Amino acid sequence: MKPETLLNTLVGMPVSHVWFSDYSVFYLELGELTPSTQRRRDGSLMNPHGEARIYAGFDWRIERSHSICCGRHDSVTRRESVIRSLVGTVVTEANVSGRVHELSIGFSNGLWLATFDMSPGGPEWHILFKKKEAYLETRRGRLRMPKDENPPVPGR
After folding, report:
1. pLDDT at position 132, please?
2. How far apart are CA 6 and CA 154, in angstroms?
3. ∠ CA(43), CA(49), CA(53), 5° rounding?
4. Cα–Cα distance between 52 and 9 in angstroms, integer?
5. What is residue 76's DSSP assignment?
6. β partners of residue 34
7. Rounded distance, CA 101 to CA 116, Å?
8. Phi and psi at residue 28, to the nearest 5°
């Protein structure tokens, strides 16, 4: 399956849940949610899983039509507020562009997620497609669709 075909399956999917990991890392769970059966150390359930999961690594920004709304260097409060505003929106466009394969996801509220990186290697992102049993990522500037590897699927 081609990367473009996989990305097109995201279009029309709702953002059902967002969650945050270390530093500025966040995850978007798309589509119908499945409750987690795993528990954290404190006994609470881990985050639910969507039909697709988008991981945005350390370098990203949320864009409006002609300006940057926020990015990883904004305050935690600002970042989390803007990212949480994506819940309930629908993915309107998903593509990968550039020589180092930057991810761009458009949402029905007019905001866009854009990944990038200013350090050697390239942007850090991946998408897990549960129904397709597929995984799309960029690593060291190369677009990859690992087939035999176990993708990272954290569920904090």
Report:
1. 67
2. 21
3. 130
4. 9
5. H
6. 49
7. 9
8. -115, 125
Instruction: Provide the Cα torsion 93, 137, 21, 26; round to 10°.
Output: -10
Name the token pair of 70: 């926020």
The whole-model pTM stands at: 0.87
Which single residue is written with the structure tokens 């949402």?
107
> What is the separation, in whole angstroms, between the first and last Cα of the chain?
30
Task: Give how far Cα 137 sits from Cα of 47, 52, 96, 97, 117, Å.
Answer: 21, 13, 10, 13, 14
> 13-38 pLDDT, tens per residue?
999 999 988 777 889 999 999 998 99
Nearest C-alpha neighbor of 150 from the set 135, 131, 130: 135
Contact indicator for 130, 153 with CB cutoff of 8 Å: no
Where exactly are the structural domains of the chain? 3-144
In the numeric block, the tokens 């549960």 are attached to 130
CB 16 within 8 A of CB 28: no
Residue with tokens 């945050």, as numbered in its chain? 20
Buried-exposed string 112-151: b where 16+ CB fall within 10 A, e elsewhere: bbbbbbeeeebbbbbbbbbeeebbbbbeeeeeeeeeeeee
